[in-house]
Amino acid sequence: ATRHRTFYRLAATILIAFLLTPPTAAQPPWQICGKSGNYAANDTYQSNIRQLSATLPKNASASRTLFATSSIGSLPNIAYALALCRGDGNASACEACVTTAFQDAQQLCAFNKDATVIYDPCYLRFSNQNFLATTSNDNIIVLKNTQSVSSPVDVFDAAVQTLLNATGDYAAANSSRRFATGEEGFDTTNPTIYGLVQCTPDMSPADCRSCLGDIITQMPQDLSGSIGGRLIGVRCNFRYEVVPFFSGSPTLRLPAPPAPPAPPPAPVNVTPTATPRGKSANNVLAIVLPIVAAILAITTVCLCYLRRRRRRQARSELPHDSTNHEDIDSIDSLIIDLSTLRGATSNFAEENKLGEGGFGAVYKGDLPDGQEIAVKRLSRNSGQGIGELKNELVLVAKLQHKNLVRLVGVCLQEHEKLLVYIRKEERS
Fold this sequence. Notes:
The protein is α+β, with helices and mostly antiparallel strands. The chain has 10 helices and 16 strands.
């Protein structure tokens, strides 16, 4: 009675899986019958298979990884077996699935010593050949969904491979079950692609990733453009769909791939008109000359504006308490740029210093026209304030006498207060 209840539960589970699974070329179980020989009814090899069918389902379901291998007997009747349940399953479903697989294998591949049977929840292989000694991914089955994507095939295939490779990296390196699931955003027609990968847990991370890599690279050849498909081997397998098919939350979530660039606009066919050589040169001049004239005009306006701005800035730094407008206008013509005085005195070099008084130092220099000058540089901390400087400017600017030193310039820029005098009169 217990065995019957277990069988009915498995039958119900498989029926539900059939109803939820997207249409493929066939429905489970899928079988591969080998060519390594046959056995007779009730002979030693069949007895060994029956012993394996009594122990392997329990061993697989009791394992934390839902996986088991075993061998029994001696040559020439030794039998090897492997059972693997899907990593998102549970122990009871695993045991029921492997038990049923042993029964179906002996019916679907009757008296064949090498049989592989595959279901959604598990798969089983037994053989008289020692396939357990290798990680070769034999007996691969390709299952392809009969529906095709409406999106560009190469874009969809690339997205599927990206998802399977990322999920395969995780399964090989981070899971003791060598199992992982994932989902990836795609487009409005197929918002999400779901994927699952698995290796037998006895494989090393490198062997598992290599096995998965081999079958994932086959995807564009075997499953291109299909909205779902599987490649299932004895050692590793993958599956992808555009609808959910695994239990629980995905191990990985990938964002949607970037949208492909928009196609370039169609070229416009324009027939060029022939232009005589003389007219071509005139056309070039007609375009270039106005541009050059405009650039020169803009440059001239900018220079005039900058010069006038500097004068206004220097005037704004003079005090406005007791000096009338006539006094300030008389100084306007004496304003000299700070850059000119720095060049004349080699940037107030020490070797050009003539002396130093209570209000600052005096430097010798030469203007660009050869005029020898003396520049009085008032100290910022000197006792001579801006008022005294104003008085000296107004007074000296108005007084021009052969026995007086002649003031030829003034600079009030960048917190500098500079008076420029003739150092030596030119003689005729």
